[in-house]
Amino acid sequence: MKEQSNILVIGGTGKTGRKVANKLTKAGHNVRIGSRSTSPSFDWDDSETWGHALRGMDKVYITFQPDLAVPGALAAIEELTKQAKRADVKKLVLLSGKGEPEAELCEQVVIHSGLAYTIVRASWFNQNFSESFFLEPILEGFVALPQADVKVPYVDTDDIADVAVEALLHNKHDGKIYQLTGPRTLTFREVIQEIAEATQRDIAFTPIALSAYIHVMKEQGVPADFIWLIEYLFTEVLGNPNTAEITNDIEQVLGRPPKDFSEYIKETTTAGIWNPLVTN
Ligand SMILES: NC(=O)c1ccc[n+]([C@@H]2O[C@H](COP(=O)([O-])OP(=O)(O)OC[C@H]3O[C@@H](n4cnc5c(N)ncnc54)[C@H](OP(=O)(O)O)[C@@H]3O)[C@@H](O)[C@H]2O)c1
User: Fold this and answer.
1) Closest ligand 1 atom, CA of 98?
2) What pLDDT, on a 0 to 100 scale, did the predictor assign at position 277?
3) Can you tell me which residues the record assigns to a coiled coil (predicted)?
């Protein structure tokens, strides 16, 4: 008989978490979603909520908010790991970010936790253009971004979720660090061009300086923490010469190639996510 696990998916309504939770449930496992809106609730800003969420769980998929690079993330992962051990959790699968030295410090905490672990270190997600902060300017038809010509091997959250599920369910992935990327690199300029062609819309793309981008965010009242993170991601991650590196870890783990950006574009266009905003 197939063994059934109790698995906590932290961020289980988010971009990768909801897919991981669905796949595990379909495979017959008991899934508990950890987020601020679930019961018991799990809030990264309140470590007192973590014990209830961890109780009775065998394994945990960890997606930290907002990013493992932010100040405070290291202490939070240290505390979560401690509480997980106390709750007799057996395995941790950590979603991390490729090209983020601070995230790698958090990985080390999990690696040295004494628990079984897998690190899933992902490149930027395709879904940042359909479920995150790049969506709004695309809908408005005017995208202005710094680092316009940096090449990024965007990875699809379907592939990340498939790898995370594999890692959670099979101990041959214990002790491994997987670096997940898509099969080709694209610049912001190329991404917007591909979306414009697929949706048959006019979407203007303008390269701007990072300082100008930050200035606009400040004027719009974007919280300082979020601005710090954006500045970090645009300098540390996109400024890292290894950002463009393409890996074959998805194929190694799943036995099939990663999803190409064009497939993601086709699916998202068909779903109508990039239909222009209708203004009255
Ligand atoms: N986006 C990328 O390109 C990328 C690339 C590599 C790695 N990553 C990493 O992936 C992780 C997830 O990032 P994401 O931006 O894609 O987010 P996401 O997974 O879409 O996050 C949303 C999820 O987090 C929950 N959440 C939000 N704030 C929370 C809090 N304070 N406490 C507990 N749960 C909270 C949300 O539920 P509630 O609102 O109900 O709480 C929801 O389930 C981050 O650690 C990021 O560094 C992202």
Assistant:
1) 6
2) 67
3) none
The rounded Å distance from CA 13 to ligand 1 centre is 9
Atom 24 in ligand 1: residue holding the nearest Cα: 11
DSSP conformational letter for 65? S
Q: Report the alpha-carbon distance of residue 225 to residue 218 in Å, rounded.
A: 11
CA of 134 to the centre of ligand 1 (A): 15
Is the pLDDT at 237 greater than 70, yes or no? yes
Q: Which residue has the tokens 């300086």?
A: 209
8 Å CB contact between 216 and 154? no
Tens-place pLDDT, residues 168-199: 999 999 999 999 999 999 999 999 999 999 99
Q: Transcribe 70-92 into DSSP letters.
A: STTHHHHHHHHHHHHHHTT--EE
Domains belonging to the chain, first-starting first, are 6-125+155-182+244-258 (3.40.50.720)
Residue whose CA is closest, atom 16 of ligand 1? 15
